[in-house]
Specification:
TIM Barrel; 10-stranded mixed β-sheet; 387 residues; two-stranded antiparallel ribbon; 13 helices
């Protein structure tokens, strides 16, 4: 793996192959968000401009969410476009967006510089506005019920490709693009395409820029940022030492190793015991409750015995350290994996609550617009190949 990633291994051959596929692809153009503040000043000086111009560009990008040279009236008109071209090369371009939930959900398919595709989803709730972002083009984890997993992994995203998703969504929200008028983007979840821990360096750098105060960042509290993982244990352990109070979400999806080996191939490398131990250690290190994500699949992992097994695993640690999010599966077209019956969802939730575990059935968004991560991209590629 590159130094942007934490090396992971799996017994699943397709996953192992896809993890290496991105190595030989060209790198995205270097963007202001890819550089440290000192690197920005060095590049600015090497271009023949004073270092203080960096702060002006940072202010436009992070404070005003702008990369439009016409708005940068504090810069000499003769150099605006030159600096924009140098520090803000185009990294993501909207292919199309789809709205759902009466305009409070917008899912966007983005094209990157190399014509690959990623997705992000902007969602407005009564008390917050949340953006779900991607960290990779595709995913190498190979979970069979996941649309992104079916695509395989193409490459990691750069820090700036991650940050640009946030800037674009923050601008859309501020300009009233969601139903209900202008609002401030307040929450970020790394639950889109890709395994964030497999692109660790870029993800952590992006988190620091997202959470830093303007003009060094967007000023979105790190406590309102969630990083999801299928259970890459080295990444969980490393994130616990970063000093970032982000929430960890672990995509468990199974209550025993036999089932999880099938649903989450990474379990063959880091089994349930290792993942749960690392997640609990994260709680102890950060004092932030861990979210346990559990996609409910009809007749697969949603029965009474599964809920009882899951409750025992969580309560093994003896403290109020985890919050469980049972998630009604947004099924992929043509897949044998489908959503649970409502009565099984209720029973699953009741068993967890009766065991003293805080559990909330996840509010699903965008079912009518291919809302699960990877579905828009998968459908796009399918349409392109059938033309």
């Amino acid at each position: 793996m590159t130094d942007n990633s934490i090396a992971v291994e799996t017994a699943a051959a397709p996953v192992a192959a896809s993890l290496t596929r991105h190595k030989f692809r060209p790198k995205p153009p270097t963007h202001l968000a890819d550089m440290t503040p000192e690197e920005r000043k060095t590049v600015m000086k090497e271009s023949g401009f004073p270092a203080f111009r960096v702060r002006q560009l940072e202010n436009h990008y992070f404070s005003h969410l702008s990369i439009d040279p016409d708005t940068m009236t504090d810069l000499p008109q003769g150099i605006r476009r030159q600096l924009v071209e140098q520090f803000f090369p185009p990294l993501i371009t909207k292919v199309y967006s789809r709205q759902a939930d009466n305009g409070t959900t917008i899912k966007t398919l983005w094209e990157l510089f190399d014509h690959t595709k990623i997705e992000s989803v902007l969602m407005r709730y009564p008390t917050r506005t949340t953006l779900c972002i991607s960290s990779q083009v595709g995913c190498g984890m190979g979970c069979p019920f996941c649309a992104t997993g079916m695509l395989g992994l193409t490459r990691n995203l750069s820090t700036a490709e991650i940050v640009e998703q946030v800037r674009a969504a923050a601008l859309l929200a501020a300009n009233g693009g969601l139903a209900g008028g202008a609002t401030r983007l307040s929450n970020i979840v790394f639950m889109g395409m890709g395994e964030p821990m497999a692109n660790y360096k870029s993800v952590v750098q992006a988190i620091r820029e997202i959470s830093a105060l303007p003009p060094q960042g967007f000023g979105i509290s790190a406590r309102n940022i969630t990083v999801s993982t299928v259970g890459v244990v080295p990444g969980i352990k490393k994130l616990a030492q970063e000093g970032l109070p982000v929430r960890l979400a672990v995509s468990l999806h199974a209550s025993n190793n036999t089932l999880r080996d099938e649903l989450v191939p990474m379990n063959k490398r880091f089994n349930l015991e290792k993942v749960m131990d690392a997640a609990h250690d994260y709680f102890l290190a950060t004092h932030r409750r861990v979210s346990i994500e559990y996609a409910l699949m009809r007749g697969i992992n949603d029965q009474k015995i599964n809920a009882i097994e899951l409750a025992k695993r969580i309560n093994h640690y003896g403290d109020n350290w985890a919050h469980v999010n049972p998630i009604p599966l947004n099924p992929v077209e043509g897949s044998r994996w489908t959503a649970s019956k409502p009565e099984d969802e209720k029973q699953f939730l009741r068993i967890l609550n009766d065991a003293g575990i805080t559990a909330t059935l996840r509010d699903t968004r965008g079912n009518d617009i291919d809302g699960a991560c990877g579905q828009l991209a998968a459908k796009y590629y399918e349409n392109e190949t059938t033309k």
